[in-house]
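Many introductory courses stop at the sequence. We go one step further.
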Amino acid sequence: MIDYSWLLVIVAYCVGSICSAIVVCRVMSLPDPREQGSGNPGATNVMRFGGKKAAAITLFGDLIKGLLPVLLGQLLNVSTELIACLGAAAFLGHLYPIFFGFKGGKGVATSVGVLLGFSWQLGLLVIATWLLVYKISKISSLSALIASVLSSGFAWWLGMSDAIIYATLMMTVLLLWRHQANIKRLLSGQEK
């Protein structure tokens, strides 16, 4: 029997590589998000120049492309380890999209989609954490960073497999890496 696991991982990466911000901006005749605002092709930047509707569609697109590959793996009844790989591949596709010169977004919404796919309880805990921190701080990046850092702990607390915990931890490390500039601004009190 032929093992098609590698093909599923490639598909997950390609789905993650679809840049929602760029697609939404092209469809809505908005400027390229990589050339506007922060230059980040994500929902927060799209909202700066495209408004709430464009940002909401971008956010939904980024979330869905993290969720769908994980759900596909579950539908095909693959191993938990492969499901973890599918989620990680979709997330990596968002960060380093093959269709856009390997220059993608920061991964917050896509990671939430992956986490919702791993477990709806895990996804909701991360979303609730983001909302709580945002309500207190009014700083989106701080909310995303704290929610992401806690996600592996939530996965462990929910009794999820080691593979899922490791995938969640990998996403957290990369998300922190992609938010280096935000972290510096937070530490200096200059983050908007």
